[in-house]
């Protein structure tokens, strides 16, 4: 096991500070550093000012042994990253002939004149490792000195990402000797606090692998991460923890390393050879949309009906007028008849429905956020009531999204039960 390193990301560019561009570089580098097992404790942004950049470098190296910079490598007068960083390390800028040759070839090929400020991109800090840039004109570099390491990368993401992958990753892999391997576990039907309460003792005791919860809209994700030399070793470390998580909260676990709830549902339908059909009111086709977002969903999904009005609920789904009059469109009874109706119309083995009030105003005297989701099949029938009242400006979309997630979860749950029924 080699040294544990700490890193800081320092993004350079006044345009980032001003909010003119979104800093996607930091997010990308942070994720990759996590995989490499490099501890990241700080991210910073500094404008194109040599004095402030120098101070930022001093601060970064006071708390990290690796600093990764992006930006400031262009040909214009305010691109001063190399000059400032070279001065910080007490190094001169010298002409890097291979970079200069490539620069000349580029301008000759494009028929453009290479001005003197373009030439400065070929000057690099002496005794550095130069990173070739096949996607642009500005090379990057690595400087190592007194136990510190600086990686200088260009700002444009289409140049930065491949340079990071090709040059930075191999260097850091040699430094760390290990990598982080993770599995993402997705839960539905339980809140973050409730899940953490169930697993708290396990989470506190687990150091390698670690367990970290992340809240999503209507869902919870647990990331189980092992620090290991290879994938096989990581799998062995994570295996008993995964078994214990499944023992304590498996009824809410819908997938491991699955893209999303709809992917899990489609995969389960494919595995069981089943078809699902949808009948939607307040979600306006969102359940169907999410299903058909999944590649291969045509094998298990043929029909989705958006019956927004009572007339369409009666005409297309055979919801009885008596049910609508007595209980209303927003009711458990209507939801059950909608699910059964779309199943008859489509011939699918599983029918799922959603009806409710997504707001912003009350409907039929029913409160905003009251939603009923139903599933109908030969082996499992269920209606659930949701109270999703929210007051923020995104309340309507939140209600529709969580309602659609519950419908997808019912499809998944019902498909899972299919084999159990046959085994009896």
Task: Please specify the SSE layout and strand pairing.
Blueprint: E1 6-12, H1 14-17, H2 24-36, E2 39-46, H3 50-63, E3 66-70, H4 81-88, E4 93-95, H5 97-110, H6 116-119, E5 123-125, E6 129-131, E7 140-145, E8 148-153, H7 157-176, E9 179-188, H8 192-205, E10 210-216, E11 219-228, H9 231-249, E12 253-256, H10 261-272, E13 276-280, H11 286-292, E14 301-306, H12 310-317, H13 321-327, H14 332-346, E15 350-356, E16 370-376, E17 382-387, H15 395-423
Parallel strand pairs: 1-2, 1-3, 3-8, 13-14, 13-15
Antiparallel strand pairs: 4-5, 6-7, 7-8, 9-11, 9-12, 10-11, 15-16, 16-17
Helix pairs in contact: 2-7, 3-4, 8-9, 10-15, 11-15
Helix and strand content put the structural class at: alpha/beta
* Mean of residue pLDDT values: 92
| Unreliable sequence segments | none
Q: How many domains in all?
A: 3
3D shape: elongated
How many β-strand runs?
17
Distance between the termini: 51 Å
CATH topology of the largest domain: Molybdenum Cofactor Biosythetic Enzyme, Chain A
Structure characterization notes:
- By secondary structure, the protein is an alpha/beta fold.
- The chain has 3 domains: 6-176, Molybdenum Cofactor Biosythetic Enzyme, Chain A (3-Layer(aba) Sandwich), CATH 3.40.980.10; 179-256, Alpha-Beta Plaits, CATH 3.30.70.2860; 261-423, Alpha-Beta Complex (Maf protein), CATH 3.90.950.20.
- It has helices spanning 14-17, 24-36, 50-63, 81-88, 97-110, 116-119, 157-176, 192-205, 231-249, 261-272, 286-292, 310-317, 321-327, 332-346, 395-423; strands at 6-12, 39-46, 66-70, 93-95, 123-125, 129-131, 140-145, 148-153, 179-188, 210-216, 219-228, 253-256, 276-280, 301-306, 350-356, 370-376, 382-387.
- The strands form 4 sheets. A 6-stranded mixed beta sheet has the order 2-1-3-8-7-6, with helices on both faces.
- Strand 13 (276-280), helix 11 (286-292) and strand 14 form a beta-alpha-beta unit.
- Helix 2 packs parallel to helix 7 and helix 3 (50-63) packs across helix 4 (81-88).
- The longest helix has 29 residues, at 395-423.
- The protein is elongated.
- The mean pLDDT is 92.
């Amino acid at each position: 096991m080699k040294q544990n390193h700490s890193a800081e990301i320092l993004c350079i560019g006044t345009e980032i500070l001003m909010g003119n561009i979104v800093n996607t570089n930091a997010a990308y580098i942070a994720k990759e550093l996590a995989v490499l097992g490099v501890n990241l404790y700080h991210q910073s942004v500094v404008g194109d000012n040599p004095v402030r950049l120098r101070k930022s470098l001093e601060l970064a190296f006071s708390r990290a042994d690796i600093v990764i910079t992006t930006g400031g490598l262009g040909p214009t007068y305010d691109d001063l990253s190399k000059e400032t960083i070279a001065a910080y390390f007490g190094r001169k800028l010298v002409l890097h002939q291979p970079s200069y040759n490539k620069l000349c070839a580029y301008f000759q090929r494009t028929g453009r004149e290479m001005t003197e400020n373009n030439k400065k991109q070929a000057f690099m800090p002496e005794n550095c490792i130069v990173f070739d840039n096949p996607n642009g004109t500005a090379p990057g570099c690595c400087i190592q000195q007194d136990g510190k390491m600086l990686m200088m990368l260009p700002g444009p993401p289409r140049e930065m990402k491949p340079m990071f992958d090709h040059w930075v990753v191999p260097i850091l892999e040699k430094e760390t000797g290990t990598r982080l391997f993770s599995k993402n576990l997705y839960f539905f039907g339980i809140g973050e606090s409730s899940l953490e309460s169930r697993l708290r003792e396990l989470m506190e005791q687990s150091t390698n692998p670690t367990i970290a919860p992340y809240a999503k809209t209507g869902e919870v994700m647990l990331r189980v991460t092992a620090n290991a030399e290879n994938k096989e070793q990581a799998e062995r470390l994570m295996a008993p923890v995964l078994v214990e998580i499944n023992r304590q909260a498996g009824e809410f676990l819908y997938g491991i390393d699955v893209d999303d709830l709809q992917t899990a549902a489609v995969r389960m339908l494919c595995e069981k050879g089943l078809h699902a059909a949808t009948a939607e009111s307040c979600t306006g086709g969102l359940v169907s949309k999410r299903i058909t977002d999944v590649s291969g969903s045509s094998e298990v999904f043929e029909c989705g009906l958006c019956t927004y009005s009572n007339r369409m609920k009666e005409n297309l789904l055979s919801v009885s007028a008596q049910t609508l009059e007595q209980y209303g469109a927003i009711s458990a009874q209507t939801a059950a008849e909608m699910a059964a109706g779309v199943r008859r119309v489509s011939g699918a083995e599983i029918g799922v429905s959603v009806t409710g009030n997504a707001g912003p105003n009350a409907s039929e005297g029913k409160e905003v956020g009251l939603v009923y989701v139903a599933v109908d099949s030969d082996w499992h029938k269920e209606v659930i009531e949701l109270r999703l009242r929210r007051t923020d400006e995104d309340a309507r979309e939140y209600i529709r999204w969580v309602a659609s997630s519950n419908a997808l979860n019912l499809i998944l749950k019902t498909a899972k039960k299919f084999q159990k029924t046959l085994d009896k």
